[in-house]
Amino acid sequence: DDINKISKAAKIMERMVNQNTFDDIAQDFKYFEDASDEYRDQQGTLLPLWKFQFDKTKRLAVTALSWNPKYKDLFAVGYGSYDFLKQGQGMLLLYTMKNPSFPEYVFSSESGVMCLDFHNDQPYLMAVGFYDGNVAIYNLKKATSQPSCKSRAKSGKHMGPVWQVKWQKDDMDNNLNFFSISSDGRIVSWTLIKNELVHTDVIKLSAEGTTKQGPEGLQLQTLGCGTSFDFHKKIDHLFLVGTEEGKIYKCSKCYSSQFLDVFEAHHMAVDSVSWNPYHLKVFISCSSDWTVKIWDHTIKTPMFIYDLNSAVGDVTWSPYSSTVFAAVTIDGK
């Protein structure tokens, strides 16, 4: 108890010292306005404020970032590696802007973290997906370095890296529920029942021309590789799935065996797919084939196509306008 009392006081002192040290940056953060932006054509300036770093993550890549929905100064960072040959440990850190010099929470994991998602109503809960195919729930209220529950080989873990996890509304019995997607072609619903993660396969993606002729006339089933998914903002059961083959599937939680629709969207992997927060028919997709496309889900061809001259790694809608989106490309733009 004594240590707890001291540690809280020490934490507040550390924050105060940091805020004094970085006072000019804190002022910039609040008030910085570059007058010369007026005279630049389409080119803004970027002012780097804080650099968040931690010794133990030196050799790892940042694979996931997410702001906490309730505590506006708090964000989570996932560390791992995209290189198949350089797989090792991963880390999950939470930083606050009140103390840029040291993380607020530190979790280490056996496998690299690939994706994470904060629960909207219970912001102390995080769903995390790993390179080895496992998923886990971390609880920030429990001061342990381990996740409060994790999938196991027996309980239906993925066979490939988990590329995205997303919380859903609690199920009928008020159990926590989230979805995950992986290269193994499965979209899995995970429900937390009595501190155990129970899995249900929502959909298995199959590649085009699903069965291949193997040796001695064997029929081989080839799986599609899922890369990203997004749930509709209003229609609870409707979701989109992007795949490595460039297709986008429109699916429903109600039918696990078939798709509602298939879009021949891209020539290469779909890196991100996302519904528009304002316009309920519209979604956006981006791909390694250099394009960003905007779709109406009732029409098979895209409404807009943007060619960005480089593989597009991610795209996101603006939270305040239905017509604005941001994209990021592999060449660092």
Into which percentage range does the β-strand content fall?
A: 35-45%
Give the SSE order as H and E letters.
Answer: HHEEEEEEEEEEEEEEEEEEEEEEEE
Task: Characterize the largest beta sheet: strand count, sense, and whether it forms a barrel.
Answer: 4 strands, antiparallel
The helical percent reads under 10%
Flag low-confidence runs: none
Average pLDDT number: 85
Cα(first) to Cα(last) distance is 50 Å
* Radius of gyration, CA atoms, in whole angstroms: 22 Å
Approximate shape? globular
Q: How are the strands of the biggest sheet laid out side by side?
A: 1-2-3-4
- Structural class by sheet pairing and helices: mainly beta
Give the gist of this structure.
The chain has 2 helices and 24 strands.
Question: In terms of topology, how is this protein built?
Answer:
Blueprint: H1 2-21, H2 23-31, E1 61-67, E2 74-80, E3 90-96, E4 105-109, E5 113-118, E6 125-130, E7 135-139, E8 149-150, E9 162-168, E10 177-182, E11 186-193, E12 196-204, E13 206-213, E14 219-223, E15 226-231, E16 238-243, E17 247-252, E18 261-264, E19 270-275, E20 282-287, E21 291-296, E22 304-307, E23 312-317, E24 325-329
Antiparallel strand pairs: 1-2, 2-3, 3-4, 5-6, 6-7, 7-8, 9-10, 10-11, 11-12, 13-14, 15-16, 16-17, 17-18, 19-20, 20-21, 21-22, 23-24
